[in-house]
């Protein structure tokens, strides 16, 4: 009888070993459970990643990607109202103002310290087919031949010979040896020379 029970116990232990059931335990470790736990962990990770992505997208507002269009020029929300030192982008009709100010406008997205450290410069560009208005009137309305210093904000003088000087010119010199008679404004302007009299947009077509 004892031999039969020993054989029975040996068979039971062999069966438990085959099924992966520990001796003395009424429950085995099913291979389905680790796979289920792995799936749940993967699902939680995916949901967490999606939530983080939505949160990051919510912080990245439309204003970060906004392009200032010509229609916004002259309306509220522009980074500057006028500019004495506007420069044009080489490939786009976009303008940046290099004027040094004590404080950037609240609408300026890219406010940086000036190279000389005497104020701030707004690095925003405005799209416009025409040059933005100046804050300080230049001594000339336009100029094709200009001489400027190489300073960050240059001093410029227009060398054009004109029929009459602009009303903003204080030193209008008559060129006696000119034929026909011409005038030349001898004022020096602190800032960029402004637009040319021959527009950069071709009108030949």
TrEMBL record:
Residue ranges annotated for the Bowman-Birk serine protease inhibitors family domain, each copy included: 82-135, 142-197
The protein's name in its UniProt record: Bowman-Birk serine protease inhibitors family domain-containing protein
Record GO terms (molecular function): serine-type endopeptidase inhibitor activity
One GO CC term, this protein: extracellular region
Species the sequence originates in: Zea mays (Maize)
Keywords, comma-separated and alphabetical: Disulfide bond, Protease inhibitor, Serine protease inhibitor
Gene expressing this chain: LOC100284348
Similarity field: Belongs to the Bowman-Birk serine protease inhibitor family.
CDD domains given in the database record: BBI
């Amino acid at each position: 009888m004892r031999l039969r029970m020993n054989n029975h116990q040996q068979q039971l232990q062999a069966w438990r070993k085959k099924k992966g059931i520990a001796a003395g335990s009424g429950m085995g470790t099913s291979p389905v459970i680790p796979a289920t736990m792995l799936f749940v962990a993967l699902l939680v990770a995916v949901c967490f990643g999606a939530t983080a992505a939505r949160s990051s997208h919510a912080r990245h507002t439309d204003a970060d990607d906004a392009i200032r269009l010509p229609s916004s020029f002259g309306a509220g929300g522009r980074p500057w109202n006028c500019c004495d030192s506007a420069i044009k982008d080489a490939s786009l009709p976009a303008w940046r103002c290099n004027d040094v100010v004590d404080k950037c406008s609240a609408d300026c997205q890219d406010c940086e310290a000036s190279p000389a450290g005497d104020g701030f410069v707004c690095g925003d560009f405005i799209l416009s087919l025409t040059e933005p208005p100046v804050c300080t009137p230049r001594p000339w309305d336009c100029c094709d031949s200009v001489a400027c210093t190489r300073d960050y904000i240059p001093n410029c003088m227009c060398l054009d010979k004109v029929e009459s000087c602009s009303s903003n010119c204080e030193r209008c010199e008559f060129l006696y040896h000119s034929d026909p008679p011409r005038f030349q404004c001898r004022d020096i302007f602190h800032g960029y020379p402004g637009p040319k009299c021959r527009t950069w947009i071709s009108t030949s077509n």
